[in-house]
Amino acid sequence: MSDVSQATIPAPATPADGGKSAGLAGTGDGGPVGKPRSLWSDAWYDLRRNPLFVISAVLILVLLVMAVFPQWFTSASPRTGDLANHFLQQPQYGHFFSPEWLGYDAQGRSIYARLVYGARASVTVGVAVTLMVTLAGGLIGMLAGYFGGWIDSILSRILDVFAGLPFLLGSMVVLNVFDVRTVWIVALALAFLGWTQIARVTRGSVITTKQADYVQAAKALGAGTGRILLRHVLPNAVAPVIVVATIALGGYIAAEASLSFLGIGISPPTVSWGMDVSDGKDQLRNAPFVLITPAVMVSVTVLAFIMLGDAVRNALDPKLR
Amino acid sequence: MAELGKKDEATGAPTVGSGSAAEADRTAAHTAAAGEADETAEVVAAIEAPVERGEPILQVRNLVKHFPLTQGILFKRQIGAVKAVDGISFDLHQGETLGIVGESGCGKSTVAKLLMTLERATAGEVFYKGQDITRLSGRALKAVRRNIQMVFQDPYTSLNPRMTVGDIIGEPFEIHPEVAPKGDRRRRVRELLDVVGLNPEYINRYPHQFSGGQRQRIGIARGLALNPEVIICDEPVSALDVSVQAQVINLMEKLQDEFNLSYIFIAHDLSIVRHISDRVGVMYLGKMAEIGTDEQIYDHPTHPYTQALLSAVPVPDPSMREGRERILLTGDVPSPANPPSGCRFRTRCWKAQDKCAEEVPLLAVPERFQGSDGPAAHESACHFAEEKDVVHA
Fold first, then answer.
1. Contact call for A220 and B158, based on CB within 8 A
2. How far apart are CA A133 and CA A199, in angstroms?
3. Are A112 and A97 in contact (CB under 8 A)?
4. Subunit contact A4:B247, Cβ cutoff 8 A
5. Of the candidates B138, B137, B258, which has an alpha carbon nearest to the alpha carbon of residue B195?
6. B205 — contact with chain A (CB < 8 Å)?
7. B69-95 pLDDT, tens per residue?
8. N or C: chain A end with fewer CB closer than 10 Å?
9. Which ipTM was obtained for this model?
């Protein structure tokens, strides 16, 4: 029987720990065993080799830095306009990263500076909504899925009611209550209606996971509910939730832009791409760049998050391997 | 409702070596007006007490599990029940292996879950060392779980893919910290890996880095961690290929001798069950059809269902195969939600008569064999039990 126990397990060597993996093959000599490879590290190994992931990750990284330190990208202010000199001035595409690079809008403000400063609103709304939705929806979905019975019945009916409200129209009704709408108010309004998607995914995922034999085995050992949820159910049910949350993040950014475009999103003076698109629609014929540049920015950002979610799904879903 | 009569008769008897002593202690405690805590302590003490070899350690009496079938979304009402296990009784003696065989869907795995108290029994009792474990909770239940462990069927789903082997085998110690002090746990895990024939250096690996047979060894190591007395094996080798099956079976036999374990071994592979079991029970549609030693069941079956099962076992000798009669059953297993009246097997049985539809046959030594000492005189739930040598014919 010792031949079985000594059998080596082929593990794809990574450049980073190739030396250690090679050491693994010869565990018979009793040498130290290399760093273990979990499913997460396998997923990370896959991700690093996926061009889709690399492109979207770089884009998102640039966006995040832009949101935190906009002054690193431009010296111009997004709020001071100069109508006398810059009214709807055409873009100077040769002058990279200068204030006049992408032209000026109808109030003589640098469109490039507004793009840079607009990132903060979009990224904040996207990340904040995703965090709130994942925490609230994840908790509700997990409780409903794990405990089932009447808890599930009640939570699922509440979920059905919220899922029945149209997302964008519902947020407009909620936001209409406020006179001044900050980034956080918009985020709360979106999260208030957006948690159902995550809750559904979490519930389904937890129901699948709780039937697994290793959960039964933990119960048979006498493990309590807390241990089973935290050690066994959550780590195994979280992958689809992460995927959906990443993809949804792009959707929330688009929703914020839509609301701002309709004039019911973030209020000025906060800079938002959606508002810039709205401003640009009046000059669409004589100065299309005023509308097109922020619109492209929204699309690229949403696309980056959806691509990231897709790549993460491919890496985490063992069925696709 | 002949079952009711059987229940009274069956529950009358469960006495165990340590049971009577515990009983006496309990009455004493009651007169002293002791609270529930004392009672729990007594149950725990009874569970921890040792049992002599050959004494019954687990006694199952008329165990029933019905899964309700409900209709409606908001207001659920019961429209029926799947009678997965419908009145099963048997004993498991200390140090022996009891095999349970039967085709898919006959309730074998539900029995395993009931014995593990992973499912609550609808009715009936499971006595572990004289204590009914189906109604226990809290500390007493935890004590039972220390002593009855399980090896699962599918080694690919029974190990948490997000935990290392060390964490999986070490988890029992975290749940029952009294078994091993904190500093000692890593060493114990390494020992367990060694015991089941795996390299102790694999402690930091993840389950997906192992083969099926190796994973099943990890599952066995986890089951052994708490030094249990009973291990319930729910088709532990069905998911493994044949050469690995033999290794795992041999390992389990070795461990039984080493740690003085009692096994309940659930499987549908008749030859493996014969190899490992001291006694064998045959299940059909939630009921026990026949139970006896492996010689009695395999060489002298008296229940037609057992005979049909055995006649399907492949015989490697072509000349013997010629003269052998194969019993081909017609039809499918009836739905456990709506089982046939009387004998469960009558719809597929070639001996069925009117009596079979009216009377439920009891699991007892058939009348015609009652006087004899021969191997055919074992419990068989058939009105027309008779010997038929299907394996050697």
1. no
2. 8
3. yes
4. yes
5. B258
6. yes
7. 887 766 777 788 888 888 888 999 988
8. C
9. 0.77
Number of neighbours of residue B8 by Cβ within 10 angstroms: 9
CB contact under 8 A, B150 and A220: yes
Mean pLDDT estimate for chain A: 80
pTM: 0.74
Chain A residues within 8 A of B219 when measuring between CB atoms: 217
Q: With an 8 Å Cβ cutoff, are A222 and B161 in contact? A: no
Helix (H) or strand (E) holding B83: strand B77-93
Amino acid making up residue A220? A
Q: 3-state class of B152 per DSSP?
A: coil
Q: What is the pLDDT of residues A58-108, one digit of tens each?
A: 999 999 998 888 888 888 787 777 777 767 777 777 777 777 777 888 788
**Angle B379-B380-B382 (CA atoms, 0-180°, nearest 5)?**
150
The average pLDDT across B360-379 equals 80
pLDDT given for residue B359 in this prediction: 85
- C-alpha A271/C-alpha A115 separation (Å) is 8
Whether B373 shows a pLDDT value over 80: the answer reads no
For A60-64, A200-204, B270-274, which range has the lowest pLDDT when averaged over its residues? B270-274
**Candidates A213, A231, A235; nearest CB to B158:** A213
What's the rounded Cα separation, in Å, for the pair B317 and B121?
45
Q: Which of B162, B63, B73, B81 is nearest to B121 (CA)?
A: B63
Contact B160 A231 (CB under 8 A): yes
